[in-house]
Amino acid sequence: xxxxxxxxxxxxxxxxxxxxxxxxxxxxxxxxxxxxxxxxxxxxxxxxxxxxxxxxxxxxxxxxxxxxxxxxxxxxxxxxxxxxxxxxxxxxxxxxxxxxxxxxxxxxxxxxxxxxxxxxxxxxxxxxxxxxxxxxxxxxxxxxxxxxxxxxxxxxxxxxxxxxxxxxxxxxxxxxxxxxxxxxxxxxxxxxxxxxxxxxxxxxxxxxxxxxxxxxxxxxxxxxxxxxxxxxxxxxxxxxxxxxxxxxxxxxxxxxxxxxxxxxxxxxxxxxxxxxxxxxxxxxxxxxxxxxxxxxxxxxxxxxxxxxxxxxxxxxxxxxxxxxxxxxxxxxxxxxxxxxxxxxxxxxxxxxxxxxxxxxxxxxxxxxxxxxxxxxxxxxxxxxxxxxxxxxxxxxxxxxxxxxxxxxxxxxxxxxxxxxxxxxxxxxxxxxxxxxxxxxxxxxxxxxxxxxxxxxxxxxxxxxxxxxxxxxxxxxxxxxxxxxxxxxxxxxxxxxxxxxxxxxxxxxxxxxxxxxxxxxxxxxxxxxxxxxxxxxxxxxxxxxxxxxxxxxxxxxxxxxxxxxxxxxxxxxxxxxxxxxxxxxxxxxxxxxxxxxxxxxxxxxx
Length: 605
Fold this sequence. Notes:
Elements (H helix, E strand, L loop, with lengths): L3 H11 L1 H9 L6 E4 L5 E5 L2 E2 L6 H15 L5 E5 L5 H9 L5 E6 L2 H10 L9 E5 L2 H9 L5 E5 L1 H4 L3 H17 L6 E5 L6 H14 L3 E5 L5 H6 L6 H25 L4 E5 L6 H9 L4 E5 L9 H4 L5 E4 L4 H8 L5 E3 L16 H7 L1 E6 L4 H6 L10 E4 L22 H10 E6 L17 H8 L4 E4 L14 E3 L4 H10 L2 H18 L2 H15 L1 H9 L4 H6 L5 H7 L10 H10 L8 H15 L5
Parallel strand pairs: 4-5, 4-7, 5-6, 8-9, 8-10, 10-11, 11-12, 12-13, 14-15, 14-16, 16-17, 17-18
Antiparallel strand pairs: 1-2, 2-3
Helix pairs in contact: 1-2, 1-5, 2-5, 3-4, 6-8, 8-21, 9-21, 18-20, 21-22, 25-26
């Protein structure tokens, strides 16, 4: 092939350090082969990186599909190097003014590409991103524009782990640079396990300095439940669905009263497809944190395409399922804990007697728990079961506390702190451990935040969150009695594990961390909108310091704190607050006129 001497000079023009690294690299990552069309193609092991028939035609089809989604104000970021056919095809479509960057995880792979075929001068227009993942993320963050990631899967799959590291580093950087204040409306559910999560989310957002409006539908739960008294299922479902539609319209009306920058819905929030479509038409930005098992609760299929962003607690097949249903953006965002709610606490002797046990379990009576928990009872240790929906579980009646009544958050915390070994068995509607064990439940983080020792069933996503020195796992039901005997009387070892888990939660797994990441993801996608606010570009000081800001406007901005976010409405309110009857400056009149127009066009209902 030997095209490297001809291709290296253009790389030296734009990225001299990368050119030197390529020259010194060994290469040999890709196996080069002739395609049927006659051009060179490549494999990695048994995997084709480009078409074995016509790599150029394949690259053009990929590039055309990517280009349709690529907006003028976005920086395109290519993932996947290969022999660069796909990048060349995309560069040929790129219009003047657009920026296209390519991440290079392995300089040896790039050397193979430069040696395989003559490239001409088009690569000079590419911004090559290479180095350690954090360095690459910093380069991307410094663009200060929306990023459009374009993944050429056959080549990108060779370095999937590095791409994930870059993405994670990028989110952390954006999160650490947040200095502005958003206006966020959180839409909560009527009832259920996601209701307390909505409260934790609100607390976290407020702690980050954002102004949060909670659209709380839980007050209507009693009315909703009354429809359950109908004998006819058809009547019950009709009334409950109509009631949910009414609450959805109520949400739209509340948003119209005080339009936010972001509408953040928590799982089971009553927002219908029709209302969501109307919000999109009115340019509202929407996101859903779906804190549920997507396999069990499937209503998301009806609204998948109507939210701008989905945040889910599962990966892999979950991502694919949401995308097939039309979700435009899907991101992994695991559960967390609120350390203001779950924390280590000392109990009185009476509380220890009431809540304490050698072994405890807190949760609802799913089928796998009804089958497995009786197997873990033993005269060798005391056992207490807390929670509701245990009707008919005769084998557990002797250990069920408070007759199976629902317990509140404070009681959960006291049980966690009073128990020697907390069992954490994830829910499953079958007689065994969950065969598709991926997501990690909130209890994992809440127990850890309390500094409580737990035995948890293994989950595929758990190692990404906790080490096996922080949470002890079991892979089969038979392991549990042996693990209880192993840890029950080893106080020092239990304490070391539990303290390590607590440190991990406080450092990485609070709701504040999750909201920083959620906003970073959205801020990266909407750099000129959410991103600009998060960066502080709309704060009074930043606006006043802009070279293009007229002196008259800078004077008006001087009435606000430099770190205070200022929008048109805020300036208009400030002018009106000075009282009627005084002579207004020209710029003040213009601001009031614009604000009046904004008020007339904001109506949603």
